[in-house]
Amino acid sequence: MARKMTFFQKPLGATLLLGSALGTPYILFETEPGEQIRRAVAFEATSLEMTPPEITQPGNAPPVNAPPERLMLESLQNPVLPPSVRRSGLDPLAPASDFQPPIDLREVLRFDIDPDFVYRRFARVSTVLSDLSLDGLRVPLVSGTQAYDVAGSLTYYFDINKTLRRIQMQGVTGDARGLIELMVQHYRLHAEPSLGGQLLTTRWNNRVTSFMHVAPAPVVTSASPNARFAFYLEINPPADRYGLSQEAMQMLVQAQAAKRW
User: Fold this and answer.
1) Which pLDDT score, from 0 to 100, does residue 133 have?
2) Residue among 30, 36, 38, 143 at smallest CA distance from 85
3) pLDDT value at position 166?
4) 92 to each of 2, 40, 56, 260, how far by Cα in Å?
5) Helix (H, G, I), strand (E, B), or coil: what is residue 78?
6) In whole angstroms, what separates CA 19 from the centre of its chain?
7) Considering the chain, what is the average pLDDT of its residues?
8) Distance of alpha carbon 193 from alpha carbon 87, whole angstroms
9) Alpha-carbon Rg of the chain, whole angstroms?
10) Max CA separation in the chain (angstroms)
11) Is there a contact between 125 and 118 (Cβ–Cβ < 8 Å)?
12) Does residue 113 belong to any structural domain of this protein?
């Protein structure tokens, strides 16, 4: 009889490891995948190389006179680069160096990105095994040292045509309000009633296509004020045939079964 693979022996399981250099446990809905992620954080965190750039606060929300799914798709495909990037003259396609330039989340959370952008924009890129139809590229992500900044990992998933089909981001922050505001205003996620933190989703034909969960860290100490909250984000284009990843679906199903939302 074949031996059953554990979560981390599966190629897809590795994509959920939290890239947090702050070493704070990450737990999502207290599900089995979330618990396994929490145990693996300490190992994954040691592999990240980070520098502390500044973060640019979220800008104004896009127009609201269109359906939510259209607004989200347009904002992802036609992003407005943040002022910090325009003022600095930073070319997003310029070769990366050992020093990681400041990262505005609106610059890197968009669907007009290709693999070449990832390799040029980030100093360190790791290949990730996804499902059989997508290839993954993971990068360490640090937006700064303020409480509202984020630290973690960002993973892009491309199809055979090198078209971006999925974005996952997971990490920690000291103040989640800015991140939540960005997701609501710029990416059109909506808050759902839930336990164990805050859940935001985007739906297409009443089916969840993107979501973010933010939860208080199990233990908060004065030594790590910028790691008071852990978050998991997965964004997929509306009406895309790929939809949520297997892990994301499992998290939501288990959370719903446990009446967490």
Assistant:
1) 86
2) 143
3) 96
4) 47, 32, 16, 40
5) coil
6) 10
7) 73
8) 40
9) 17
10) 62
11) yes
12) yes
Does the pTM of the predicted model rise above 0.70? Answer: no
Please report which helix (H) or strand (E) contains residue 166, including its range. strand 164-173
User: Any idea what the Cα angle at residue 59 is, between residues 53 and 62, rounded to 5°?
Assistant: 140
pLDDT tens-digit series, residues 201-218: 999 888 899 999 999 988
- CA gap 139, 127 in Å, rounded: 9
Residue 224, judged by CB atoms within 10 A of its CB (0-12, 13-18, 19+), counts as middle
Instruction: Please say if the pLDDT value at position 170 is more than 50.
Output: yes
Residue 170 phi, psi (nearest 5): -145, 145
CA distance 53 to 70: 32
The total of structural domains in the chain comes to 1
pLDDT of residue 31 exceeding 70: no
The per-residue pLDDT for 218 is 86
Give the amino acid at 255.
Answer: A
Q: Is residue 146 part of a domain?
A: yes
In which domain, by residue range, is 186 found? 13-48+67-80+91-257
The dihedral built from the CA positions of residue 216, 206, 163 and 253, taken in this order, carries a sign that is: positive
Residue 147: band (very low, low, confident or very high) from pLDDT cuts 50, 70, 90 = very high
Give domain status of residue 107, yes or no: yes
**What is the per-residue DSSP string for 106-117?**
HHHS-TT--HHH
Q: Does residue 210 sit in helix, strand or coil?
A: strand
Collapsed DSSP state (helix, strand, coil) of residue 218: coil
Residue 105 is assigned to a structural domain of this protein: yes
Structure tokens at 171: 């990490």
Closest-CA residue to 155 (of 18, 8, 51): 18
**Cα 47 from Cα 191, distance rounded (Å):** 33
